[in-house]
Target: ABC transporter permease
Amino acid sequence: MKDFKSLLKIEFHRIFSNKVLLAIFFGAPLLYGFLFGYVYQQAKVVDLPMLIVDEDHSPLSDKLIDAFQDNEGLEVSEVRYTSGDIAAEMPYREYAAVVTIPQDFEAEILQKRHPEVRVDLNMANILNANIASKNIQSVLMTMNAGIEIEGLKKQGFSPEQARDSYESFKINFNKLYNSTGNYLTFMLPGLLAAIMQQVIFLALALVFARDFEDNYFQILANTNKRSVYHIGLKAVPFFILIPVMWFLVSGFIPYFRIDADIFNLPMLLLTILLSLASMGIGMLFSIIFPSQLKATELLMVISTPAFVLSGFTWPSLAIPAAIQNFAQIIPLTHFLNGFRKIAFYGGDLSSISHELGLLSIIIAVSFMAMSIILHFKIKKIRSSGEVEIVS
Model:
């Protein structure tokens, strides 16, 4: 036990003497937390620039333009009377949409000829295009309904009769779980979890790889022959440091006023298992690849696409089966599935039992693999009888 404490002090010294590790482990979560929080702080996309080509110049077209200007999601950047070369202007203006009101628009409506309003969407940014399309449809449908109702009133219908004749049935959308469509609530928790997984991956990828590179592991191997002993020696400092980082990162949720229930027992257990699974994979790569650069580079291959593959933003049902299977070995996939159930659906431990089970399997498999591989490395060093002193 005395030797373990002495070696543990050395481990803390080696961790805090590694400036790259400190910058990654302590700096990245906090820096990216503030960065992404402020990026999405507006919570929803507003004032998307649009161009209106008014070929009609009528009171009705002016009324339609006013309706577009009153919509918070859209900003009428320009109104012109001829279209010009929109394709040539798009790289400079980057309109989210171009709405063309045709010539004789008002006259054809009065004659019941059903003119066509053309909407050109800029699909280079699909998110902006979808939001612009939704707001444009809302304005046009409202205007269309208003015109129809006014026409019925002119035919002698009372306002109530005109409205009831046009509106055959009512539609009521009830938005559950993030009812305001707050993009900050949707994106930031998932991004923070992805950052923490990547930070743990990279930090643990250095623990054994660094020892192999500077020959310090030869000293450790001759102090104790049990692989579990050395795994515990490397893990204990992070059992202390990782909870500190989770505590700091979790503060972004109330700081940015995100409506998510995360301070509860199911979330605590889910977070612990994510941390252990990430530690297991990071440490396993550190043992298999005795090079800090190679271990971190290979872990980046896993961690970089993890957020996309998790199904958090793009539905898993739309991802090919082979890629879905690969995503199952990434702890973040199961954490984010469980996170949504707890934070937004108000689930309990039973609702995330599947995710907890899969994370436990990742932990068990990585621990067994670490123990076996490390056992043979220790045996090889001890049988050689050579001990080099770390410089």
